[in-house]
């Protein structure tokens, strides 16, 4: 137990070495000199010029002028937390990676979520891919699993990544739109790079507007290798399965949240961890033996393809828990440097051409963003195991290397630091046999761009298909060039004629030729969010309440929600307390001015009286209408019925009336369903 706790706290202790607590300390310069004045610069007379002699002013201003570092080109808008990974069962049959050997072993980690297209200050609920990057601080060195919340990508070869990003970023002639793909250059890229078809289907689906970081899946995207102690290799794909299920916003709601709270996703993660509602995902792997590499109707190295879970089951091997918020967003979240090339013995690469390019790009970008080659010495990036080599100097060097030797081989230091054999833990690349001519080309097995896009479409529920059509209609409808709109419709006619015809109707172009539609009939239930488990845990419920509320009903539903693990806010016209008909006093958490229905998963109309009854009624009705329009659960208590009767709310799916003893449990069950599409 002692050793387990040591391992669990190792990374935390390491960061403590660099943590500075300034409370109750004297103000000093960066050199440790105590400062007597921090309000006024040194001047030649009270109304005279500031003197260059004022070293404190110059140090303070110079530091301020250099506080910003280049933001990430992509994934700039991110948020992160600390946690741990616990292994369920030994994976020794597949990999010799130490952190995957002993059941119950816990490995500290750091996970960053992000949008892709937007700048650092953009909103978080935009339609976009979400980054899902995990840094494991293992005893053998850092291992980074750098992925997304979608299992495929837009392109097959890394050489096209600059083109993709240039296309989706704000257009250079006017720097618009921010954090959005609904513009001409992105859709021009899509129509002329049709390998993107499968990824665009995901991008237009509800997966692109998750309810929470805690309610989205994560994927390694690429095909990697597991290599065991005997040198046997398996191809592997990684999956993160969220405990709370996979849930999304609706598009109208997502747009409104961007205005009401552009920090919606980071606030959700921060508050959940602060409340002790730790975020959890199970880690799963799909495994294919080397001998099966060519047994499928797709190329397993193609990053625009999934391995359908019905064909290659996901094996659950462990659990990630995020249980500690960062202490400083810049020092940790901004300065963390992920890299798919940060691996440990037992994990290796495939010949996926997108992955191969990332292995170069990530080092290159950290050099410019973090100022030089010593980004590994920043506290958040330091491994928990010691590191020794002959690298020296450079910007930001923190290690003070002693001795005269900084080269290999040597005799002055007995040829140390020395290399390790594979048996001693030295990393040895998998000895894959490679034979071929040098060509700038791709395999013919990568050329089917539409079969899996059709598989995805076939797997969606009726509601999900409608959302995809609406998303295409919005995005392509924002394209000003009619020829590009036609090209997009023609392209997705190769996926499904019904889909493409619906888009064509919405954006004012011709329907495609039906004969070009993909003939794939297969579906994969694992791709639909509607088939994912749903829980009420940590859901946010807003109770609209005034004075003279029904004490018993409010107590009952609040208690039932809290017992189910939900969070409840009492919302009224002003802060303070409200008093029920039997004298129960309740503290108001939020007001109608500070919150909005789109920021809650469910609404309860408790009713009551207010100082401004007309405004209280209008605000209550506005909350109810918004929640009803977005298919959210609504509870209507006896005192709230008069407000509901004047709203758009009808007695239908997900609308629970307090007309029986089980109404509170019925409401909890309704919240667990997330949305009620039957309306």
TrEMBL record:
<feature type="domain" description="Catalase core">
    <location>
        <begin position="28"/>
        <end position="416"/>
    </location>
</feature>
<dbReference type="GO" id="GO:0004096">
    <property type="term" value="F:catalase activity"/>
</dbReference>
<keyword id="KW-0560">Oxidoreductase</keyword>
<comment type="similarity">
    <text>Belongs to the catalase family. HPII subfamily.</text>
</comment>
<keyword id="KW-0575">Peroxidase</keyword>
<dbReference type="InterPro" id="IPR010582">
    <property type="entry name" value="Catalase_immune_responsive"/>
</dbReference>
<dbReference type="InterPro" id="IPR020835">
    <property type="entry name" value="Catalase_sf"/>
</dbReference>
<feature type="compositionally biased region" description="Basic and acidic residues">
    <location>
        <begin position="1"/>
        <end position="25"/>
    </location>
</feature>
<dbReference type="InterPro" id="IPR041399">
    <property type="entry name" value="Catalase_large_C"/>
</dbReference>
<keyword id="KW-0408">Iron</keyword>
<dbReference type="InterPro" id="IPR011614">
    <property type="entry name" value="Catalase_core"/>
</dbReference>
<keyword id="KW-0479">Metal-binding</keyword>
<keyword id="KW-0349">Heme</keyword>
<keyword id="KW-0376">Hydrogen peroxide</keyword>
<comment type="function">
    <text>Decomposes hydrogen peroxide into water and oxygen; serves to protect cells from the toxic effects of hydrogen peroxide.</text>
</comment>
<dbReference type="Pfam" id="PF06628">
    <property type="entry name" value="Catalase-rel"/>
</dbReference>
<dbReference type="Pfam" id="PF18011">
    <property type="entry name" value="Catalase_C"/>
</dbReference>
<feature type="region of interest" description="Disordered">
    <location>
        <begin position="1"/>
        <end position="42"/>
    </location>
</feature>
<dbReference type="InterPro" id="IPR002226">
    <property type="entry name" value="Catalase_haem_BS"/>
</dbReference>
<dbReference type="InterPro" id="IPR018028">
    <property type="entry name" value="Catalase"/>
</dbReference>
<dbReference type="InterPro" id="IPR043156">
    <property type="entry name" value="Catalase_clade2_helical"/>
</dbReference>
<protein>
    <recommendedName>
        <fullName>Catalase</fullName>
        <ecNumber>1.11.1.6</ecNumber>
    </recommendedName>
</protein>
<dbReference type="InterPro" id="IPR029062">
    <property type="entry name" value="Class_I_gatase-like"/>
</dbReference>
<dbReference type="InterPro" id="IPR024712">
    <property type="entry name" value="Catalase_clade2"/>
</dbReference>
<dbReference type="InterPro" id="IPR024708">
    <property type="entry name" value="Catalase_AS"/>
</dbReference>
<dbReference type="Pfam" id="PF00199">
    <property type="entry name" value="Catalase"/>
</dbReference>
């Amino acid at each position: 137990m002692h050793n387990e706790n040591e391992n669990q706290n190792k990374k935390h202790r390491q960061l403590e070495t660099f943590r500075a607590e300034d409370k109750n300390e004297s103000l000093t310069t960066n050199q440790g000199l105590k400062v007597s004045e921090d309000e006024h610069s040194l001047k030649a007379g009270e109304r005279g010029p500031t003197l260059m002699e004022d070293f404190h002013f110059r140090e303070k201003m110079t530091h301020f002028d250099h506080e910003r570092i280049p933001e990430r080109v992509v994934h700039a808008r991110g948020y992160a937390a600390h946690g741990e990974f616990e292994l369920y069962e030994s994976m020794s049959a597949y990999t010799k990676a130490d952190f995957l050997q002993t059941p119950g072993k816990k490995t500290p980690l750091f996970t960053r979520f992000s949008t892709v297209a937007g700048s650092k200050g953009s909103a978080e609920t935009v339609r976009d891919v979400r980054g899902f990057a995990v840094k494991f601080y293992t005893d053998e060195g850092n291992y980074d699993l750098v992925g997304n919340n979608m299992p495929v990508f837009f392109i097959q070869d890394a050489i096209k990544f600059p083109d993709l990003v240039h296309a989706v970023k704000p257009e250079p002639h006017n720097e618009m739109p921010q954090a959005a793909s609904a513009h001409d250059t992105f859709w021009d890229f899509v129509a002329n790079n049709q390998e993107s078809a499968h990824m665009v289907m995901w991008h237009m689906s509800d997966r692109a507007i998750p309810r929470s970081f805690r309610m989205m899946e994560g994927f390694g995207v690429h095909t990697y290798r597991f290599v065991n102690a005997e040198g046997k290799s398996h191809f592997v794909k990684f999956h993160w399965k969220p405990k709370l299920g996979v849930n999304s916003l609706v598009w109208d709601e997502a747009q409104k949240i961007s205005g009401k709270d552009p920090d919606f996703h980071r606030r959700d993660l921060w508050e959940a961890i602060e409340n002790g509602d730790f975020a959890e995902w199970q880690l799963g792997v799909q495994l294919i033996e080397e001998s099966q590499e060519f047994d499928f109707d797709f190329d397993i190295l193609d990053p625009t393809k999934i391995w359908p879970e019905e064909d290659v089951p996901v094996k659950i091997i462990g659990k990630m828990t995020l249980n500690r918020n960062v202490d400083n967003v810049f020092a940790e979240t901004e300065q963390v440097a992920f890299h798919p090339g940060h691996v440990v013995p037992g994990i290796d690469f495939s010949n996926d051409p997108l992955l191969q390019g990332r292995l170069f790009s990530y080092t290159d970008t950290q050099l410019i963003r973090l100022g030089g080659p010593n980004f590994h010495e920043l506290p958040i990036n330091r491994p928990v195991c010691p590191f020794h080599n002959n690298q020296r100097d450079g910007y930001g060097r923190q290690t003070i290397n002693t001795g005269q030797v900084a080269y290999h081989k040597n005799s002055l230091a007995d040829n140390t630091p020395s290399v390790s054999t594979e048996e001693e833990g030295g990393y040895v690349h998998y000895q894959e046999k490679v034979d071929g001519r040098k060509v700038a080309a791709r395999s013919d097995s990568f050329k089917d761009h539409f079969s899996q896009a059709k598989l995805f479409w076939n797997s969606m529920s009726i509601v999900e298909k409608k959302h995809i059509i609406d998303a295409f209609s919005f995005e392509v409808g924002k394209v000003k060039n009619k020829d590009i709109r036609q090209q997009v419709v023609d392209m997705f006619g190769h996926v499904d004629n019904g889909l493409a015809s619906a888009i064509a109707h919405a954006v004012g172009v011709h329907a495609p030729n039906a004969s070009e539609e993909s003939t794939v009939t297969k579906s994969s239930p694992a791709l639909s969010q509607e088939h994912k488990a749903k829980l009420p845990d940590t859901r946010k419920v807003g109770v609209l309440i005034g004075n003279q509320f029904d004490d018993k009903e409010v107590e009952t539903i609040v208690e039932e929600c809290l017992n189910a693990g939900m969070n409840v806010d009492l919302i009224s016209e002003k802060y303070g307390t409200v008093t029920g008909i039997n004298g129960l006093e309740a503290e108001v958490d939020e007001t109608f001015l500070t919150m909005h229905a789109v920021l809650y998963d469910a609404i309860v109309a408790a009713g009551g009286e207010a100082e401004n009854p007309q405004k209280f009624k209008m605000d209550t009705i506005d909350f109810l209408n918004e929640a009803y329009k977005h298919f959210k659960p609504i509870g209507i208590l006896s005192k709230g019925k008069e407000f509901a009767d004047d709203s758009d709310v009808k007695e239908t799916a997900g609308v629970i009336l307090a007309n029986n003893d089980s109404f509170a449990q019925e409401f909890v069950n309704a919240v667990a369903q997330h949305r009620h599409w039957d309306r």
